[in-house]
């Protein structure tokens, strides 16, 4: 059987042939040229990056009949024997199976014997970290002062397991992961020589699957060719590697851009129907989003990301449509979902919820940013109402008291609208008219923070629905709260007779007058405003800051802080007596 796997057939035979380890090659070449070769080397790095290969090339460089030379001839008897693994002067030892003190003692005995044909005798110990502690100790003296004709080369994938006493006696070279682009170029060279037809995308996918290991990439290429023959299509590559088709990944990304949760769910279901690994699919999505964030910030980072120009153009829509903040939010949700998948019995359900969340997250972010102007306009008139209460507030500030942040009135979105324009209950939609000033005969004043708090006393679930509503109209005895399509279920629950009556009674208590409460659907054409939850949160933060400021200016508090050089850490309601600040 004359067939050789690609990893052996295309193994580098000289220093210039080594792929992706130029920093190691350059140092060793200069060492050989300057006759400064050390007696012990330690090569560390992940699997399949060239540690043993470079060790063999160094052995040939030292024992070539024309050497020592950085360019061994590959034709003399010594070079041929080393290349074929038949040289008596190059001893390759597996550290995993020869890890005892007795094995090291046999090495100590044989190093006294000079080289058979070459100039040096080299000991290449692979997976040296597998040696026992006693074996390492037995090797110390020999490693520190070996015979002049002996060179040790250790290779390991776990350098942290090597004792410091060994590390200090070796020159350490750290082999790097081979970049995706470098692996892709090498694979392209091989398939050209082998007359194999495969697309650049297929080669890049194979290179990514190798995860920095050139040997793994060659092994995967052999497997793909064995499956598909000399003509390889992209779907052949995906089948062999167990990849989720790129079309599904792009479809998910487009669903996020389009803010279409239903479309995202279909992608998750399609992955499951095809027998795809949900963990792997999620990992691919994390990688895609991370690449988009980096590309958004640094468009010239294609090479570092290992992306081709073709792949970059495929993702151009998402790069253009989504902001960096959007992408970072999506990235955070996906990485959190990865952790959840590890500990759940229902991975498909977890991924479905994450898909819905990332689609709605972008919508929420956009709504918040676009609604700022609309809310500002909507609360202008009510700010005047708040100012009329300022004298009462000033009286209380003489002796600040810590209380729940619900006392002051909250600016409200007051909008004049023809009652006919807002159809109530299940099928109604409310739009915010633009450019129309309103004269309020009997303006209502509702503290949304207090409304949420009072509703939540007896019905906390109802309060959680209420905070998602948008105050559209607060005037003439009518309180109209709209819900977006995403919160349609909340609107239906709020519109139930018992729930609506309960909230209406709370509003009547707050306003001191009869109130007609309406829950409607927010029309897509309407100008977005802040939700009740957002208005309540702002009110809480505002009152908390005002309370802290008043407390800091109180003479008693100021005196204590100045006397002891302290700082006010917290204003706690439970510790406050009537009329006194914390």
What does this protein look like?
- It contains 27 helices and eleven strands.
- It has 582 residues and is an alpha/beta fold.
- The protein has four domains: 169 residues, P-loop containing nucleotide triphosphate hydrolases (Rossmann fold, 3-Layer(aba) Sandwich); 62 residues, Helicase, Ruva Protein, domain 3 (Orthogonal Bundle), CATH 1.10.8; 96 residues, Zinc Finger, Delta Prime, domain 3 (Up-down Bundle), CATH 1.20.272; 148 residues, DnaA, N-terminal domain (GMP Synthetase, Chain A, domain 3).
- The strands form three sheets. It has a five-stranded parallel sheet, with helices on one face. A four-stranded mixed sheet has the order 8-11-10-9.
- Helix 8 packs across helix 9, helix 12 runs parallel beside helix 19 and helix 22 crosses helix 25.
- The radius of gyration is 36 Å and the shape is elongated.
Q: What features would you highlight for this structure?
A:
single chain; 582 residues; alpha/beta; Rossmann fold; Helicase, Ruva Protein, domain 3; Zinc Finger, Delta Prime, domain 3; 4-stranded mixed beta sheet; elongated; disordered C terminus
Q: How would you sum up this structure in a few lines?
A:
It is built from 27 helices and 11 strands. It has 582 residues and is an alpha/beta fold. The chain has a 5-stranded parallel sheet, covered by helices on one side. A 4-stranded mixed sheet has the order 8-11-10-9. A two-stranded parallel sheet has the order 6-7.
